[in-house]
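User: Predict the structure for this protein chain, please.
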Amino acid sequence: MEQAISFIIQASSMEAEAFFATLKEHLSLIKNRADRFAIELLFREAVENAIEHGGLFDPRQCISIDIRLFDDHWLAVVSDSGQGFDLARVMAERKIGGERGHGFFIFDEFASEHHWEDGGRSIHFTRRFGEPD
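Assistant: Here is the predicted structure, written as structure tokens:
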């Protein structure tokens, strides 16, 4: 099975929650509870960061979400039209136990693969089912 779904949402919490409700319907197709948890967590982090940092909570700004569903993994891209960020600088400034930067840990821990493109405006991530966290 391969299925592609795309969403464009406004940079608002209300739009994000509507997306997460739809996402949960698709997550119900995944048997492994740990995979469902990991995928929801990854999307929450990516979408909420795009809304906050890229869209600046401005509903006139849009967030695009592209998902490809396979039997054994999901691929996703979450993009915004914000200013992006300098990954090297952010990583150098990241502090363990700091108030910010938890998303990097979440992606390192729960995504099978991930990387940023377009100056930090797009995150691409994959979750393979059944991988240990």
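The chain has a mean pLDDT of 92.
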